[in-house]
Amino acid sequence: MKYMKIISGGIAAASLLSLGAAEAGAVGQNGGQVEAKAATGKYKILKSLDYRRAGNMPLRQGYYSGGKGFGWTKVKKKHNITKYAAVEYIAKSPKYKATDKITKKHPKHTSFTFWGYSQKIKCTNGRCRVVKEYQVKLAVQEDIRHSGRDRKPKGVITMYCQGVTRCPGWVSIGLAKANKRSARMPRSGDVVTGSYKPVLKRTFAVTAKAADAYKYGGSYKPLMTAAAREASYAPAA
After folding, report:
1. Is the separation of the CB atoms in 38 and 50 below 8 Å?
2. How far apart are CA 224 and CA 201, in angstroms?
3. Do 16 and 197 contact (CB within 8 A), yes or no?
């Protein structure tokens, strides 16, 4: 696989992350390890995503109707995210925060939002420029108390592009490509497009002598300033 190097201030950025841990079974009455019954219908697990926090995060079939829903059906039908790998890339992001409150009934956080970025990059004669960038957010629920009753987290609730209801098709492509790179890399190191360190310049050089083209990428920090990103959402005249 070819990599596109981004040069900024003489420092290369890098994509990190490794595969998640295996799922644990439930403990039976005899003290032995048994598997909980697999959930079906809208709670059916389509994929166990590699996850930044402990274990794996289920991506369930879900549903979307009347403006309500969760899982893959909502992610795809409402927000036009079309690749499991795109969801997994954001699920592995080091950028996340808890979105629920600690109470006596709920002594630990179980709801989290993760985020990253997807970029559309135009290259001309070996020089590339970020022309569009979306912040992409993923909401997950770690609580195992839900109607699926399979002793696993409820999982992915939704994923969307900040500022628009439906993500452009290239967002899924860019994040999925970034996920393939990050799955092969350790938790330390420096490289590119899908990086933990910001690339300060929006115009950068690439090593390949490519013809004019559009490229797509994903990263955990923005390549555009917030103002430039907002401006890029506007349709071309």
Report:
1. no
2. 8
3. no
The Cα 205–Cα 218 span in angstroms is 17
Neighbours of 55 (CB within 10 A): 16
Of 145, 143, 148, nearest to 37 by C-alpha is 148
* Amino acid letter, 18: S
Contacts of 199 (CB under 8 A, 6+ apart): 6, 8, 13, 219, 221, 223
Tell me the β-bridge partners of 26: 34
Helix axes 169-183, 84-91, angle to 10 degrees: 60
170: nearest Cα among 74, 235, 75, 81 = 81
Closest CA to 156 of 221, 67, 81, 66: 81
Domain boundaries, the chain: 41-205
DSSP 8-class letter at 43: G
Q: What span, in angstroms and rounded, lies between the C-alpha atoms of 168 and 158?
A: 16
Place of tokens 């899908």: 194
Instruction: Please give the model's pTM, rounded to 2 decimal places.
Output: 0.70
Over residues 34-80, the pLDDT tens digits come to 556 788 899 999 999 999 998 899 999 999 999 999 999 999 999 99
State the Cα–Cα distance between residues 71 and 135, nearest whole angstrom: 19
Q: Where are the alpha helices (DSSP H) in 14-115?
A: 71-79, 84-91
